[in-house]
Amino acid sequence: MLRPLGLCLLLACAVSLTSSAVILENGFPILWQQTAAQLTDLPNQDGVLNPDPWHYLHRMSLYRLIIAATDPFMGTMGTNATDSPIWGLPLQLGWELTSGRLVDPTAATTCGMQTGDTMCISTQSWWGCVNYFVSVLPFLSAAQQGFMGEGTQVQMQVPVGVEDYCTTYTDCATRFPDPMAKWDAFFQGLKAAADSPQSDLEKKDSILGLFWAAQQSSMYASAACNARQSHYSAPEVSFANSWMNSAEYIAAAHFQSNIQNSVQFMTPLPSRVLKEGDEPPNIADLSQEENHTLSIFSWMRNINSLLGGSLVRMWRGAMCSVATREKGRALLEQVLLNPGFASTTFLSIIAGMTTGC
């Protein structure tokens, strides 16, 4: 377990053979089969789990262990083993790896580079930093809530000289109380749903609501990573901020981020870090779909900024029921994946949906 066999070759091929984002390997997140399948596969020091979240396989292992521990409580999500909404998170981490977004953006080290340790996640990577909040924090919460076994203790490894990342449940709960409380609520809600008199549809919507509330709170807390954006080009920073903004719509609609749905939305993401001079929809070495996604993300963020944030507020207001959230998910699919869908139609439909609330 956790052995980087043939990783350089895999990643080099992924970059060279396609311009589309690499999301899956044999139907699962990148290098999934090389991650820890059980807690005993992770480092242990004096009875305390001691994973290294700055090693890609270790961080991906956190997701694998969370999914395995919570799957018995995910029956309302569907009959497939890949229906848990948590799958979207490891898929996202895999895309960050293959697109070069976990590499040291300062070039001061070879962390993440083909000439260095390809499994290294740089502490200076903005993307790696933001992902820390949606990987380490939920794992620590899951362990605290008993999903990893009664009394399991966890202490994350941290590189020498790095001090701005929390490493234990207590540490993270002190420094980032809101996201930790919301991850706790999510894991507690999973257990409570088993005895709830609600219908399966209501349970599913409730669980997704708790999941996205926790994920969004983690994203807000990741503002602690913002200084790292100075290492990137203006187009990459613009995309990163637009990507964060897009999550507002997906979260409010209670998107079921299972493997099938997540792959559909992640495949059009840019397959490389953007550089100065990249101007969508005319980036020559990116696909039409990638250019479209970049353009739509930018448009949604710019419109929301021009409207003083009211577009996001209108969308949240429109997502007021199970029925409107279902319509919202269908609308997002159209605006993000259908290049022929008029953006003005998006605005008019939102306005119409808010009247029904």
So what's the overall shape? globular
Question: What share of the residues lie within helices?
Answer: 40-55%
Radius of gyration: 20 Å
Order of helices and strands: HEEEEHHHHHHHHHHHHH
The total of beta strands comes to 4
Q: Please report which band the strand proportion falls in: under 5%, 5-15%, 15-25%, 25-35%, 35-45% or over 45%.
A: under 5%
Structural class category: mainly alpha
What is the number of helices?
14
Low-confidence sequence ranges:
5-18
Question: Span from first to last CA?
Answer: 51 Å
Q: What value does the average pLDDT take?
A: 92
Largest sheet: 2 strands, antiparallel
Strands in their spatial order, largest beta sheet: 1-2
